[in-house]
Amino acid sequence: MSEHKIDLTVNGHRHSATVEARTSLGEFLREGLGYTGTHLACEHGVCGACTVRVDGVAMRSCLMLAVQANGSEITTVEGLAKPDGTLHRVQQALKDNFGLQCGFCTPGVAITLATVLEDNPSATTEEMETAMSGHICRCTGYQGIRRAIRQLAGEAA
Amino acid sequence: MNYHASSVGATRYVGERTPRKEDGRLLTGRGQFTDDIQLPGMLHIAFVRSPVARGRIVSIDMGVAREMPGVQAIYTQADLAAIPVQMLSFFFTPIESPVTLLADGRVACVGDPVCMVIAESRAQAEDAAALIELEIDEETPLVTIADAKTGALVHPDKDDNIAAEMGDEDMLEEAIQPLLDKAPHVVTHTIRHQRIAQSPMECRACVASPEGSGEMTVWMGCQSPHLAARYVAHALGMPQESIRVIAKDVGGGFGLKNIPWREEVAVVVAARLFGRPLKWIEDRFEALTASSHAREQEVTLTIGLDDEGKLLAGWSDYACNNGAWPMGEDANIAVHMFMWPAYKLPAYGFVTRGWYTNTMGLGGYRGPWAMESLIRETTLDKAARKMGVDPVELRRKNLIYLPDQPVTSNMGIEVTDITPGECLEKLVANVDIAAFRREQAEARKEGRYLGMGIATYIEPTGSAGAMQPMTGETVQLRIEPTGKIVAMLSTHSQGHGTATTMAQVIADRLGVAYEDISIFEGDSAIGAFSPGAAGSRQGVIAGGATWKATEMLAEKVKAVAAHLSNASVDAVTIDGGMVHVEGAPEMSRSLKELAEIAYGEPARLPEGMASGLEAQFRYQPPPMTMTSAAHCCVVEVDAETGFVKILRWVSAEDCGTVINPGVVEGQIAGGLAQAIGQVLLEDMPYDARGNPLAATFKDYLMPTISDVPDFEYLHANTPSQTIGGMRGVGEGGAIIGPPTLVNAIADALAPFGELGGEAGEVTLPLTPSRILDVIEQRNVSGHQAPAEKAVAAPVAEEVPAETVAVSPETEPAPATASIDGDWDMTLKAPMGGQTFLAHFDTEGTSLSGYLSAPEGRQEFSGGTFEDGRMKFEVKVDKPMKVTLKYDLQATADSITGKCKMGMFGTAKVNAVRA
Prior knowledge:
The structure holds two protein chains of two kinds.
Chain A: E1 3-10, E2 13-20, H1 25-32, E3 51-54, E4 57-60, E5 73-75, H2 89-96, H3 106-119, H4 125-132, H5 143-152
Chain B: H1 23-27, E1 43-49, E2 55-61, H2 63-66, E3 71-75, H3 77-80, E4 106-107, E5 113-119, H4 122-130, E6 133-138, H5 145-150, E7 162-167, H6 170-182, E8 185-193, E9 205-211, E10 215-220, H7 225-236, E11 243-246, H8 262-274, E12 278-281, H9 284-290, E13 297-305, E14 311-323, H10 333-337, E15 347-356, H11 371-387, H12 391-398, E16 407-408, E17 414-415, H13 420-430, H14 433-445, E18 449-461, E19 473-479, E20 485-489, H15 498-510, E21 517-520, H16 538-565, E22 572-575, E23 578-581, E24 589-590, H17 591-600, E25 614-619, E26 625-637, E27 644-654, H18 661-681, E28 711-715, H19 732-749, E29 761-763, H20 768-776, E30 821-829, E31 832-843, E32 846-853, E33 856-866, E34 869-876, E35 882-890, E36 894-900, E37 906-913
Parallel strand pairs in B: 1-12, 8-29, 10-11, 14-15, 20-21, 27-28
Antiparallel strand pairs in B: 1-5, 2-4, 2-6, 3-5, 7-15, 8-13, 9-10, 9-12, 13-14, 16-17, 18-26, 19-20, 19-25, 22-23, 23-24, 26-27, 30-31, 30-37, 31-32, 32-33, 33-34, 34-35, 35-36, 36-37
């Protein structure tokens, strides 16, 4: 199994590591660097729980290898809130609207919605719901997530 | 004792949409799930699973695998057997199938764990697992319930493939059929429910760390760390104190994680054997194909009605697929117990069976008895269509309303405060059905097919005291010397938000700020035994326990303050964490000041009062608390494609006192989304060779945001008889959701014909092609009724099946043998086998004796003994009054037969000489 040295930035912190070629980015973030907020739920790219932001793009970290992230800037759910603890507006909207229950799928949901809003701060409800269609949540029936999306779009939740 | 009671402080918390305490950590990636645990020296486990459904293990070649990098050990059942384990059901009764942690010589389903590889990383463990060569003599598997009825024995030591059986077949002819024959309207309806994979977002997970002399700390994805610890201790014969189970955050349970199962227990056993911390993280392929499954069942219900639409009699025949290794053999008696308590149906009978097959075993899933609502509510709608009456009117004629109570159901369930009728009225008052019917008629002219479905139900929640694990809840509450308020609870949240709701109760009843309260749960070292999230019970029982403990603590605070201020207790109030004395503002003290005195200067306390500011209460609620609801949904079916779009969904539920509407509605919504999945999308099919076919989330279709509409909620809030007045709400959406949606689809399709055809056999899920079967009145889906399903193609090099005998009728032995003396007797009761000592005395043909168990002894007399046939009756009071009617056949050294158990139907009886 070949090993490779990589350098990357996660939530503003620089990391260097040697990884096996086959290690997924999600596994590396969790076990190599301790960012356990990223959750691996299907490991085949369908459920969206492991979504992280790689160079501004929402990526499924189970489908990307750690070596592919060499030189990248990555944001995980741990990097969304401000250093003083103020929640990102996506996190706040999810909290305000009971948008999570068990919280296992939530990190991916938060990263996806934050990335949509990063690209377009005035994204519509429809655009955010379309992005959300790539995430599976087993607990909430998506009710609170949909209300959070409306709140983020400036509509009545 | 209800939510109208004013809060202690000025700020009200019970009934408010208070933001959840859990969200802060979960939204910022600071939760602690089992896979987040890393321990020094920890090794990783991968299981090797059977690729075939049935056969004898010929050889296991581990030679190459053992040489792989990082591999530390490979265990088979022969290794794990060094520590004896008795697998148990949720009721702590022994599993009746010969289940072992790893396969013991035979495999009985695809996914059966055969070997366990322990390596330095998960990837290395998986690499090695892939190189283990299993040679299995493959045999023809039994896959369907129909296969089980005619095929070779799944477990060669069993008499037949019936895993569990209840009901009284004779009752059909004797009591029910005559009533049906006289009924002017008779409707028969069949539902075939597909197999469901519970699919919590976090797959199963376990880390076991052996410590000290025989102690163990276990992190496990479970629904109650207390129950998991008790289970593991019981299964391994260890003191429970030596096991600590921690489950801070768990990514959904839904019944799958009710009890630890083979893999989790195997991890614990292997950690003891190997002496190192071990971690197993299930992957999604395993979760879908090799975690216990749920629901696969078939039921036919026949009801008779008079010309006014009043129910006269009902009969149902129910079967469910238990797979090879169920988490407890199950005939689902609860389906029959809870089918009719919300309705006036004078006579009901049933037969109900669970069948062993060579498929993954049956596990729990939100509302395991939910078929009672699905079959009843869809049959009622079918009757309404056939009779040309309004489905709401048909329900009004038969539903129980508050003035009808107390009333006892045909199965002996007494209801005293259910509100299914009231929920229906509330629903109907808020949905303009007449306007919908006009819209529906107009739409049909345009070739658009709208449908409305309505369903009502009741649900038993907060069960305590009738079944071994279903107990009360203990709350330990403390105002610390620092003034902080902490509560130690036995609750567990896999999304339930128990820290939030319990803190709301404390804030409300103590008069303190919600933010000042910390809840500690999710650890078997905290609190006392409770089964956690099982049976919609935590809001009811832990809520009541917290309510009462908080009032006890508030009384103590007031007594201390009154004593210190030389005031009367009635003059003391608590608000915002401050203790005030009426008319003496200078006497106001913070809880911190009071706590410092209560802990540090006990001499200043009233004579005889214990020091500190603590309260503990264990709440034993009424045995059962009923929740009621009525739901309505509106769909549009696309006649071209067969796609169903849900346009509207309204829930009118009565869960008594609502502690937090956001949490309650979250529970209802989650259950409804699962209901939508069951009716339209989810399916775990097996092929004829016993292969599970949905191996990824691309095959197993989970509902996404685009499949689920906005839900509307109406809360009825009739307080229950529990402390606080709560009623459980965890499972309801998954119970009432399916019939509501099926009824809406059937209504939309009415212009084309009956859903399921004239034969009335509805098969779930209602995929677009199955809906086109109705619209086009031809077999678009290619679906055939399972009764005609092709039997499994014979496997090449077939090994002759052990025996083909199903229900062998053994010849009665000569009746001369004496039966006098002691026998070990086993009764296959609804909650698992019950074993007791039976003593018989005969005199001529008269039979007397007693049945003796640790719980007590029941004498009987007046029985008969003729030609080896023993007939006698025993009256018991617990858990319910019932007369047990035994009809047995004896030989010199064995007795077999049946016991009629009143409402519980008929159970099989076996006895051997003691």
